[in-house]
């Protein structure tokens, strides 16, 4: 087995070292800063001086020293302000009733703490990436395309908020566990979806987030192997990530599912994801992540869009709707229905959904309507819908894609079809299938649907 | 989600609204400090007076430069702020607290993101 890179070692150790420190000293927020400093110090010193024999002990020692310095200077500042230097009561972060040396529990407790419900999703993401993922503030800032100072503020504010709302470094009790686990899975899901199709310069740093989400979800599954939804989420991520190499063209343009070169899908990831979801469905109660993974698995096993088992996908969306009564799920089901039974069936559903105020102004509704009208041969109405969708989306690659679709219809309208310069490919039926990404449940990313 | 907050100015409105420019500025500074602390402010600048603007048009391959803004708008863009907020509701809340919103109104618009979803 090849030796792990220094960065891999640091990222792996980050939550362990932080857990050990918080357990010993309390003060989650100060410990977190101290560990970050120790990681940065290691990144500079290890390549120069060689790796220590026991990386974890080295990191704990350095972080503990930084922590003591921090606490001392804070203490001094407090004295200068002539505040009675009574020590704060026993630190709220320590789970005094659950003493354990189990490092794995530490990582899990950290993850639950970072996804504290008092934080907004962007803050949960940033803090999880730093405290559990071991990323530096600079790396996180690059991934979220904001200045480092802004990200540093956000992380420090997040830690203050956790403290203010009494967050504890401990696994939540049974009563709370279910809801907190739901938040953790949602945060990991959001992390994975960041930078899903990223263009150009942003791509590299944004894609890192998907890999980190997979790594943390793997860790979570190792701790909770019986949890079908954790397995479902990991499978969904793997089956989706398997397509990442095929969903942008050489010019960075978005390639829809139906037009993707499936030979470029990652077969190993598909195998692993399919095995995980098959196992989870066989033994655990079904949940929304498992259903979404199952849909992704049906796509993954098809040779092309035409070959896809659409009736099964329609049925899976029906199951998903039982968990999430969300118009975006219904919209995706409308596409699957069209693939199985013809465009008019789906169009009727889309029209109905347009009445829903949550979706009427959403670009995805208009994009789907455009594709279905395109399929039905109503060029001018399809073009109009594509244009509306292009105006509503805030994504550059999506806008480019939708504008191109609209333009393609304009060209073919003005020229006799056989002379059209831009061929009307892929075949319409395939173009429609392109809407069926693993976009089920992706509505969570879309603010106005929340 | 990233937004730009466009801040407009119309000196006439300032007088009728009975607001002092200094007080508005101080209030905006305070709000910016708060947004910096929360990690929501990405950046922002105030713009020079439109009398300092020059309009450049390329005519027949050569740039033609004229002084001033090309439209005789009474309102002009006075500054902008880049925000990164968790939700649109939060961004609207910030916009509503921007002091200039009481005088000339402010415009909030999402930025395009470099990534998207499979279609």
Describe this structure in words.
The complex is a heterodimer of chains A (450) and B (119). Chain A has helices at residues 6-25, 28-49, 55-80, 103-114, 121-131, 137-143, 148-164, 174-193, 203-223, 228-241, 267-283, 288-301, 310-323, 327-341, 343-354, 363-376, 379-392, 396-414, 428-433; one strand at residues 197-198. With 450 residues, chain A is mainly α. The longest helix of chain A has 26 residues, at 55-80. The radius of gyration of chain A is 25 Å and the shape is elongated. By secondary structure, chain B is α+β, with helices and mostly antiparallel strands. Chain B has helices at residues 11-17, 21-37, 88-97, and strands at 2-9, 41-46, 54-59, 62-67, 76-84, 106-110, 115-116. Chain B has a four-stranded antiparallel sheet. Chain B has a two-stranded antiparallel sheet with strand order 3-4. The mean pLDDT of chain B is 90. The interface between A and B is large, with 52 and 24 residues.
Q: What would the principal axes of the Cα set say about the shape of chain A?
A: elongated
Helical content of chain A stands at 55-70%
Identify the biggest protein-protein contact and residues per side.
A-B, 52 and 24 residues
Structural class of chain A: mainly alpha
> Tell me about the biggest sheet of chain A?
none
Could you give the distance between the termini of chain A? 45 Å
Report the major sheet of chain B.
Answer: 4 strands, antiparallel
Residue windows where pLDDT falls under 50 for at least 5 positions of chain B: none
Mean pLDDT of chain B: 90
SSE run of chain A = HHHHHHHHEHHHHHHHHHHH
The fraction of residues in strands of chain B falls at 35-45%
Write the topology of this structure:
The complex is a heterodimer of chains A (450) and B (119).
Chain A lengths: L5 H20 L2 H22 L5 H26 L22 H12 L6 H11 L5 H7 L4 H17 L9 H20 L3 E2 L4 H21 L4 H14 L25 H17 L4 H14 L8 H14 L3 H15 L1 H12 L8 H14 L2 H14 L3 H19 L13 H6 L17
Helix pairs in contact in A: 1-2, 1-3, 1-4, 2-3, 5-7, 6-7, 8-9, 9-10, 10-11, 10-12, 11-12, 12-13, 13-14, 14-15, 14-16, 15-16, 16-17, 17-18
Chain B lengths: L1 E8 L1 H7 L3 H17 L3 E6 L7 E6 L2 E6 L8 E9 L3 H10 L8 E5 L4 E2 L3
Antiparallel strand pairs in B: 1-5, 1-6, 2-5, 3-4
